[in-house]
Design brief:
single chain; 282 residues; alpha/beta; Metallo-beta-lactamase, Chain A; 7-stranded mixed sheet; 8 helices; globular; binds zinc ion
Length: 282
């Protein structure tokens, strides 16, 4: 399985547009791994996790062809993970041609909230109406915690996240040819229900929420210490294989050193820091 990180920042992107804190200054000065787009990932060539606002710049920079995408996993509907303006262009009124069918996996709550945002682009547009699903060439697979969907040669299992229960936030385990990958942003600590479900898997890699730096607390997300603890828990429970890799993603500027320093912290705690364009083969 091939996983490409298209974006590794939290909601604000990194640097923040108008911020001059040391982390953001490093971003402006060094660019490279210190320049982070909003979080999104590509599995193989045909599956995207989160159709976020920065997917086009990622496509330009990493040479990916978004037209090849046939499967779309949406974690939740927050604006850093879903850009309704991108989605609406699948409609023929935008004079778009050669639009291929797209299978969407998301919770019912996320589908409803994405529909509300889509209707701001075009009144009446919705992912809950057959007429509009036809116009957008989308097939919807609503899922809840514990449910599995087969997409092409992969199995996708939904795992609950307490990031925003009203939005039906989900994490996903993606299985392909005996390899398993957990995409776990945005999230708080894994719930007991989530851990019980995850114990059924032997993960080759995990990407985990790492929004705040060590010792900094914020709402709905993990900080560096908490992410390290959750990774240890996955290893200790035998969910993450001994040789499995853990990657931090969804990184904000709060309490966070620049990439190279952050990598030193992370390695001392048994994980890696992802960057935009990082490609891993499992
Ligand atoms: Zn987010
Ligand atoms: Zn900043
Ligand atoms: Zn969110």
């Amino acid at each position: 399985m091939k996983v490409t990180f298209l974006g590794t920042a939290a909601a604000t992107a990194c640097p923040l547009v108008f911020c001059s804190c040391p982390m953001c200054a490093a971003g402006w000065n060094r660019q490279g791994k210190d320049f982070r787009r909003r979080s999104s990932a590509l599995i193989g060539e045909d599956t995207i996790i989160d159709l976020g606002p920065d997917v086009m710049t990622a496509a330009f920079d990493f040479g990916m062809d978004i037209r090849k995408i046939r499967y779309w996993l949406q974690t939740h509907a927050h604006s850093d993970h879903f850009d309704a303006g991108h989605l609406i262009t699948r409609w023929a009124d935008y004079a778009s041609e050669g639009i291929q069918p797209l299978d969407l996996v998301a919770s019912r709550e996320t589908i409803r909230h994405m529909s509300e945002r889509l209707s701001l682009e075009e009144p009446g547009a919705s992912l809950e109406k057959a007429e509009w699903l036809e116009k957008l060439k989308i097939r919807v697979h609503p899922v809840r915690h514990g449910e599995m969907v087969r997409l092409g040669n992969r199995h996708i299992t939904a795992v609950e996240s307490m990031h925003d229960p009203r939005d039906g936030s989900l994490l996903y385990v993606i299985e392909e040819e005996k390899k398993a990958f957990l995409y776990a942003t945005d999230t708080l600590q894994f719930t007991d229900k989530a851990m019980d479900l995850l114990k059924k898997f032997r993960l080759d890699a995990v990407a985990i929420d790492h929004t705040y730096g060590p010792g900094i607390n914020g709402g709905g997300h993990l900080n560096a210490d908490q992410a390290a603890e959750e990774i240890s828990r996955l290893r200790h429970e035998g969910i993450l294989k001994p040789a499995g890799h853990a990657y931090a993603t969804h990184i904000s500027h709060e309490g966070m050193p620049p990439h190279e320093e952050l990598t030193v912290f992370a390695r001392a705690h048994g994980y890696e820091i992802a960057w935009d364009g990082l490609c891993i083969i499992l």
